[in-house]
Amino acid sequence: MKTVAYVLSAVALVLGVVYLVSTLSAPSLDPLIYTRDLAISVVAIAVGVAAPILLRKFSAAESA
Fold first, then answer.
1. d(CA 50, CA 33)
2. Residue 5 to residue 48: CA distance in whole angstroms
3. What predicted TM-score, i.e. pTM, was given to this entire model?
């Protein structure tokens, strides 16, 4: 189960970074679409970083 969580976390992190680079290299002219694209990429990066941390925290709490 942990392996799947780490793989999905890495996928979210990579896709977030790729989407962020894409958004910054070719920004939309509409400010709402640009903001949406930035928000999606930041959330994907945050999920990719937070998921393993939370998994370790709650796995340690279960085994204790």
1. 25
2. 10
3. 0.85
